[in-house]
Design brief:
The protein is an all-alpha fold. 76% of the residues lie in helices and 1% in strands. It has helices at 8-38, 42-70, 73-92, 102-134, 144-176, 185-194, 199-211, 221-256, 264-270, 281-305, 311-319, 337-358, 365-386, 393-399, 410-438, 444-460, 462-471, 474-503, and strands at 323-324, 327-328. Strand 1 and strand 2 form a beta hairpin.
Length: 504
């Protein structure tokens, strides 16, 4: 699989797994944690979530500038890993729930999130730039697209285990303290404490108090609400702590393999013009125009795709039957599907592209990106059709949660994640490859940062999904993302001939 690829590719992939572990831990539990810890509604939780993911990607632009200016990619990457670990440490320290001073502790949480985001900004784009520099060598140049696909596959190995680990830690702590997991109970506890329980929700709350208690029943609903919320959210805090261990492992891997990675300072000082041909100012402008055109288009895709940690997680919690045969599921566990499919499908898609390459019919990177956007639209069409008969979010809250008989099969979300993952494999690794190929050598780091900056702008719009989720029928929410993905696809197709000329 790694034949004809540079030796540093495996080491770079393994070094990135810790960041992916933390990223998918956050994607699985952050929005639910904010609601459970602080009693936030979906819209306010969505705003914080979207700002956090915006910050992760926009700060990659800052990280790219720092690395380009200092020409020290490796130290910038190591500093990023250390900062991320410190941010997770802030979140991992348990504090009492219900929170008596919400502004103070929510601010501390946001400080931890910003620290993680800044560390990620120093790390993410610069490691991708290092991988791209490996393929600047003519010996490996023809394998650039497949190299980034392999890189993308292996970094997602860490992501597979993140949601499962977070759920195991949280639920293990619950059971140790005499409780079971239920997707509705945290919201009901907060509604009870705030005096907003409807009569129908109050009946359900009293039923669940008994069902989720393993030991002697707590008959006082106020005592139960305080106790359950405190135990439940302490489990979340400990789940954040596991990400620190993953980042320590990544740091060790990176340090032990530093010599396998390119050294930009040395390369730029001594590389011959044969290895890096001079690019005139006109071509530099054309390349930058092409890059920024693609950056603008993918904003709409990321706005739709990264709903997996927000509205799709809300959907798992509110509308999905959390049982599969004899298995009891949780809302967070669905975040395992995407990285699992990335790892499973990448070799298949690589083989498919290799087969097309052998026949001289492999699509260009821009064409693959356009196809991926169309595939993403299909995923949300599936969600739209599957949600037609479901009540609105406000109705579900008034009921105190949707009964199992009215919930949809978990295969609806699993199938959607499968389709979205195929779309992702056509876009994300190939987009990174496109940037590394088209970006002028002197702007490698900053252009990788701009790719992530475009992702940031898409993420900043994520909260719109949370607002729609609470305000309109759920099927209409998904149809908005269908439209966004189709806009992205047709815009890429419109620019296709121009982009293909630039990449030749």
């Amino acid at each position: 699989m790694f034949k004809n690829h540079p030796k540093g590719l495996i080491a770079a992939s393994l070094a990135n797994m810790g960041e992916r572990f933390g990223f998918y831990t956050m994607m699985a539990i952050l929005s639910l944690f904010l609601m459970s810890k602080f009693g936030l509604d979906k819209t306010n939780s969505g705003i914080i979530y979207s700002v956090f993911y915006f910050s992760i990607y926009i700060l990659a632009l800052v990280g790219g500038i720092i690395a380009d200016k200092t020409r020290n990619f490796k130290r910038t990457i190591m500093a990023g890993i250390i900062l991320m670990a410190f941010g997770y440490l802030i979140l991992a320290i348990p504090t009492d729930t219900p929170v008596l001073n919400v502004p103070l502790f929510l601010t501390l949480t946001c400080v931890g999130l910003f620290t993680i985001a800044f560390g990620n900004g120093l790390f993410k784009g610069n490691l991708q730039a290092l991988v791209g520099q490996m393929y600047d060598n003519k010996q490996y140049a023809s394998m650039r697209d497949s190299g980034f696909s392999l890189f993308y596959m292996f970094i997602n190995v860490g992501a597979i285990f993140a949601p499962m680990t977070a759920v195991a830690v949280r639920n293990g702590w619950l059971e140790k303290n005499g409780f079971l997991y239920n997707s509705d109970i945290s919201t009901l506890c907060h509604q009870y404490l705030s005096g907003t329980l409807s009569s129908e929700a109050a009946v359900r709350y009293n039923e669940l108090m008994t069902q989720v208690t393993l030991g002697p029943s707590i008959t006082d609903p106020g005592v139960f609400a305080n106790t359950y919320l405190n135990v439940f959210n302490t489990g979340f805090h400990y789940a954040f702590g596991v990400a620190i261990l993953a980042l320590i492992i990544s740091l060790l891997i990176f340090v032990l393999n530093k010599k396998k990675f390119p050294e930009p300072t040395v390369k730029n000082a001594s590389t011959s013009t044969e290895e890096v041909p001079a690019i005139d100012a006109k071509e530099v402008k054309q390349r930058l125009y092409a890059l920024f055109a693609v950056f603008a288009v993918v904003i709409f895709f990321w706005f739709s795709f990264h709903q997996n940690g927000l509205t799709l997680t809300f959907f798992a919690n509110d509308y999905t039957l959390l049982k599969l045969g004899n298995w009891n599921l949780t809302a967070e566990i669905f975040q395992t599907a995407n990285p699992f499919f990335v790892v499973f499908l990448t070799p298949i898609i690589l083989a498919f592209f290799g087969w097309l390459r052998a026949k001289g019919k492999e699509p260009s990177a821009p064409r693959k990106i356009a196809i991926g956007m169309g595939i993403a639209a299909v995923a949300y069409i599936v969600m739209t059709i599957g949600s037609m008969a479901l009540p609105a979010s406000a109705e579900v809250n008034a009921m105190g949660g949707l009964p199992d008989a009215q919930r949809v099969t978990p295969f609806l979300l699993i199938g959607t994640y499968l389709i979205l993952t195929i779309a992702e494999l056509f876009i994300s690794p190939l987009g990174i490859s496109f940037v590394s190929k088209v970006a002028p050598p002197q702007y490698q780091g900053i252009m990788q940062g701009c790719w992530l900056g475009a992702t940031a702008l898409g993420n900043q719009l994520l909260f719109v999904g949370a607002i729609l989720y609470e305000q309109i029928p759920i099927w209409q929410t998904w149809s908005v993302f269908v439209i966004a993905c189709l806009i992205s696809m047709f815009a890429m197709l419109f620019m296709l001939n121009w982009l293909e000329r630039i990449t030749k």
